[in-house]
Amino acid sequence: MLGRKRIPDRLYDQAELFGCYIKNKQWAEAKRCYDAVRDELCSMQADEEVMTEFFGERGERGVILKEGLFREEYVQKAYFEVSVRRDGGCRNRKDDPRHKNSA
Description:
The chain has helices at 9-23, 27-43, 48-55, 72-84; strands spanning 57-58, 64-66. It is mainly α and 103 residues long. The longest helix has 17 residues, at 27-43.
């Protein structure tokens, strides 16, 4: 298992970048950022302490005990915008082909 001391600084930078993407409603970029960090920490077999630091901790009955660097509400919002709405935050853009007149 990989302890806290060996986590690259760029992963912490990605958590900060995720917050900027959320603030600017760049949902697809936020989701990609979260997915990349999650995948890398899993592949590095980071220990439980590191995973809790990044992603938070839930107790019994789903109660959030500790928020991580990637706040769960923001992760859920990014996934919703990208997966359910499927526009990646591009709604009402003039260059979006779904809004062009087909005539």
